[in-house]
Give the backbone structure.
Amino acid sequence: MNHRNDHRLILFPLPFQGHINPMLQLGRILYARGFSITILHTNFNAPDPSSHPHFAFRSIADGVDQSEVAKLDVFGLISLLNTQCASPFEESLREMTSLQGGEAAPIACLISDSLFSFTCSVAERLKVRALMLRTGCASCLYFYTKCPVLKEKYVPTHGSRLQEAVKEFPPLLVRDIPAVDSKEPELLFRLLDDLIKTIKSSPGVIFNTFEELEHPALASLREVLSVPFFPIGPSHKFCVKSSSSSLLAEDRSCISWLDKQPPKSVIYVSFGSLAAMNEAEILEIALGLAYSGQPFLWVVRPGSVHDLEWLEKSPSCFLEALEGRGKIVKWAPQKEVLAHLAVGAFWTHNGWNSTLESISEGVPMLCMPCFADQGVNARYVSDVWRIGVHLNGGLERENIARAIKRLLVEREGEEIRERALVLKEKASASVRQGGSSYQALDALVNHILSLK
Ligand code: UDP
């Protein structure tokens, strides 16, 4: 397992949790296949080298100023990173290529996050091949290829028309289109244009998904984009010793708390690393959890709630529910939580990592997409794979309580869980020897070794 193949890979993750996790998972998988791994990273949201002693780490001076970060949304930040990182990235890659031939293993290729739009051209100048890691799902990327036409027709849309079907792309509803009711959708659509161009010009794209889950989208993408695709997910399920790439400390006390809860009884609530809530929303969530009557584990990330005293101000019925059958943590070991027997459902924002982690453990989802690809992911969960329900009717306490009971108590929830367990088994089979993702990984390794 540990024979080094004398080739180095340079991995360049976009510095957000949902992008760092799948890139470092990929690093672990390819390390196990004999490659040496160098993580090239920004100073902004830098990963912790001590969690990955087998990797080399090298930072680039992104010049991102924390005060600037506070003013930008995630799309603004991605644009800024694309502007600021291009030259330090080039400098660093040039240095690494010039070191070759001495002690250092030759660079087989760069693997870049596909939202970095400059890496392909820089790598080409330096005669390094650049594969792309697409951290979102294939169905969503296929939808993005249609965006230039669809956005003309649907963006912006407001009010009741948001509930209408996108006839050109079933089963999406208009409200699932990213930035559909935003005042400034142009920035996002520019990023998506760049993403498609980057992917088209790459010698290969790695996906954190599996063929059995997304065969139709993968087949369409192969036709439309004519690029070799390697769906190797769920990457965290490959039998590689797992280590955390969390930017925040994981509070493991929730695992011993889960140990004390009845099987399949807990609603796990987390909206990922970026989404934020206002005071009214946090109050409805708290009351919804109280009214549901079910045990709950709730991740309230620092910075995700503006009012730091929200908990002290919470109504007594929530505080009693929290005391009796609830737990709040700032950050959870999510994959372990989802694999725990006590967890019966996941109330999620449907970031792709969270969605795939839930699928991998057969956990039904309560979907509450917030932005970007999450609307598309959530629609596939509810309408295509039928392993979750939307929080319809808005973020309102009674709705929340009803939706939680639908999943955890009612017959409908059992049927959803049965389908989720079938998909879980397909996910496990895909990463076993001979499975589709296992084969895609073999093909990826051969592809990398054949790149000149
Ligand atoms: N995550 C975690 N602990 C938490 C919440 C999230 O480890 O308490 C991880 C989760 O397992 C996932 C990532 O953070 O791998 C979030 O990525 P996702 O694509 O779901 O959402 P994003 O944060 O990009 O919106």
